[in-house]
Design goal:
- By secondary structure, the chain is an alpha+beta fold.
- It has ten helices and seven strands.
- It has helices spanning 2-16, 25-42, 102-127, 152-163, 178-198, 218-229, 231-241, 252-256, 293-299, 308-317; strands at 48-53, 64-69, 80-86, 92-99, 166-171, 265-268, 288-291.
- A hairpin with a 5-residue loop joins strand 3 and strand 4.
- Helix 1 (2-16) packs antiparallel against helix 2 (25-42) and helix 3 packs parallel to helix 4.
- It is globular and about 70 Å long.
């Protein structure tokens, strides 16, 4: 199924993307059918999800199929992930271990974001200890000359270039057999998981600093924190649970006005000891709550981390 999907994109996409995008079957096929087909055929651990896109409202110059470890991200906009990036002229496809750019572009602009992505990619490559016996690329070429300059699509392609950590290239005219494609993907998943284990935690947006990490197994602590930093999960949890602290009742909007509107932090409720990297159930409605910044920091200072009700009793009695 993997080879059939790649071939379909390489050979059919240059034809269908000349047609009207609205109500076209191909984008729906890529978005809805391809993830299910690949998920069934590849049989990856449940912690992985697959998404694919031919564009949103118009044809993408660089269609993609992404594989996310849900501990890290469920969007090509954040974190790091595996992605099949099809060249703009569909002459070939890269399997790339790549990085999201959304938060970096917001804070540093595209130019600054690209510089940071390149430096991070170097750091990631230094972390990898797995012996890479296959030919890989540190730099990719998505044939951006086929995309008009000063367009969103060209800038997106440049971000993919900068964000590439490692990639394998498959020319359209000489795709390997299915076994080779699957083995390459599984090999890259192994590298992906190594980076998840080894990647240092970032401390930003008032998230926890290093003083808390000693109290539990470090690997499980990192997994727990990555769950809390999954942008898609956090946003969904906030939509479900609202923006008032479930422990102390603090309301950022009431205190700070419009600048505090829709601000809160998501907290994962499952105890650290139960977390395993391939068996994490990620349900924003039942596995998360929302806490203000103070409560979020304080609840993580208590060893072991209490339940929400236990924590509410602590701060009420104290």
């Amino acid at each position: 199924m993997l080879k059939q999907t790649i071939e379909k994109l390489l050979y059919e996409y240059p034809i269908v993307n000349q047609e009207k995008f609205k109500n076209h079957n191909f984008p729906r096929y890529l978005k809805n059918d391809v993830p299910k087909l690949l998920d069934n055929s590849l049989n990856l651990p449940e912690i992985y999800s697959i998404q694919a896109s031919a564009g949103n409202g118009s044809w993408a110059n660089i269609p993609w199929i992404a594989v996310f470890n849900k501990l890290v991200t469920e969007s090509v906009r954040f974190g790091f992930f595996l992605v099949y990036l099809f060249q703009a002229d569909c002459s070939g496809v890269y399997l790339s271990l790549n990085q999201g750019t959304a938060s970096l572009k917001k804070n540093y602009g595209l130019g600054g974001a690209k510089d940071i992505l390149r430096e991070r990619a170097k750091t990631f490559r230094k972390i990898i200890s797995t012996d890479i016996s296959i030919k890989y690329y540190e730099n990719i070429d998505l044939k951006l000359e086929a995309i008009p300059k000063e367009t969103t699509a060209r800038r997106l392609g440049q971000a993919y270039h900068a964000g590439n950590i490692l990639a394998i290239y498959y020319p359209k005219t000489s795709l390997p057999d299915l076994d080779k494609l699957v083995n390459d993907l599984l090999f890259f998943i192994k590298i992906y998981e190594e980076l998840i284990e080894q990647q240092p935690l970032n401390t930003q947006d008032n998230e926890l600093d290093s003083e808390e990490v000693w109290f539990e197994d470090l690997t499980k602590y990192k997994i727990h924190k990555r769950v809390e930093r999954n942008q898609a999960l956090c946003n969904k949890a906030k939509e479900i649970h609202g923006y008032i602290c479930k422990a102390c009742g603090f309301d950022f909007e009431m205190k700070y006005g419009n600048i505090g509107k829709n601000y809160i932090e998501a907290h994962h409720l499952v105890p650290i000891a139960t977390l395993e990297k391939t068996k994490v159930q990620l349900d924003p409605s039942t596995d998360f709550t929302v806490l203000c910044s103070n409560c979020h920091r304080i609840i993580h200072r208590i060893k072991p981390i209490p339940t929400l009700e236990e924590f509410k009793n602590i701060i009420t009695t104290d």
